[in-house]
Design a protein that fits this description.
By secondary structure, this protein is α/β, with parallel strands linked by helices. The chain is built from twelve helices and 17 strands.
Length: 346
């Protein structure tokens, strides 16, 4: 038995609120009449004109991060250092220590709800993940610092769940949609430069999530954290992690080539075995680490595994506990994306 505490017009903090996911979340919160504060490294004039309050700071500024939580009813922690390559200490400082500062701020200022944006990469194990669910253990061995540090941060967020601070972790996979500044532009750029190769058999299935569906999940998670216990509720979503996808696994390379065809681009046909790609990735990592070279290596062991293996997930828990149902289908989202990209090319 439980009661529901209304979110109403409460105040929220969104870390990374100028990013792809964070900004879409902010737009929806503003549409609900919420009072929004963004913690980000840079402000946005158009959002400031709409009444959004900005705190310009990076996640490694612990005092500023902690202070930003004052007066908040919910914190959406979407900010992170992302990428497949870089110094472990840099990822640790942002993803782990930054999250600890958020947790300290929530405790110090009595914030009752924290929605943490994690990633399915936290369960990386080097194997195919086909229909994987939340029972998989968090990774402790991965050739990329991003999953390792996000796993550490997720563990601390869920461990922090209490009667006074209710926490939840969401694991959206490959967020995409109109306005995506990372995933789709990167794929298109590599394909157009002739630098994209099918890794492995080309038949691996992958889950993705449209950005609007990801935002839905974040708002549903906040609602789930408004449940106030009267007696022990073993089905509570608080203190748990959830995979968030479109629930429509696609054959990765078929989807990429379908997108390229719709844009009038030639398909990716050249292949490289997973074994060869992994070996090339190991060589690149060594060169970039020893010399060192600028930017990211063209291949890493982690990228090779991500491009060749199955990565799709069971949504049973999110559907049951959060009431999550993907609204934007892969077909509808892809059609919208194609029209947007064609419009930019004119």
């Amino acid at each position: 038995m439980y009661s529901v505490c209304s979110v109403g017009t409460s105040s929220v903090l969104v870390t990374g609120g100028t990013g792809f996911l964070g900004r879409r979340l902010v737009e929806r919160l503003l549409a609900e009449g919420r009072s929004v504060t963004i913690l980000a490294r840079h402000s946005s004039a158009d959002l400031e004109k709409r009444g959004v309050r900005f705190i310009t700071a990076s996640l490694d500024d612990a005092p500023a991060v902690t202070a930003a939580c004052a007066g908040m009813d919910t914190v959406f922690h979407t900010a992170a250092k992302v990428g497949v390559w870089g110094r472990y200490d840099d990822f640790y400082r942002t993803n782990v220590l930054g999250t600890r500062a958020i947790l300290a701020g929530c405790r110090a200022h009595g914030v009752p709800r924290l929605v943490y944006t994690s990633t399915p990469s936290v369960v990386y194990n080097g194997r195919d993940l086909a229909g994987a669910d939340e029972s998989l253990p968090l990774t402790t061995a991965c050739p990329s610092p991003y999953p390792l540090t996000k796993a550490l941060a997720e563990r601390e967020v869920l461990a922090a769940h209490s009667d006074t601070l209710r926490t939840i972790a969401l694991r959206p996979h490959l967020i995409w949609g109109v306005g995506d500044p990372h995933l789709i532009p990167r794929v298109l750029a590599r394909a157009r430069a002739g630098r994209l190769r099918i890794v492995g058999t080309g038949q691996n299935r992958v889950d993705m999530v449209h950005v609007e569906n990801a935002v839905d999940a974040h708002l549903l998670a906040e609602q789930a954290l408004t449940v106030c216990h009267l007696i022990d509720d073993k089905r509570s979503a608080a203190g748990r992690a959830y995979f968030i996808t479109n629930g429509e696994p696609v054959v990765l390379w078929d989807w990429i080539n379908g997108l390229l065809k719709a844009l009038g681009e030639p398909p990716v046909t050249k292949k490289i075995s997973l074994r060869a790609a992994s070996a090339a990735g190991a060589v690149c990592e060594t060169l970039w680490r020893m010399l060192p070279l600028n930017g990211e290596p063209p291949m890493t062991r982690f990228i090779a595994a991500e491009l060749a293996k199955d990565h799709w997930f069971d949504l049973t828990a999110a559907r049951r506990d959060l009431g999550y149902t993907p609204r934007i289908t892969m077909a509808a989202g892809t059609a919208e994306l194609v029209e947007s990209l064609k419009g930019k090319a004119r």
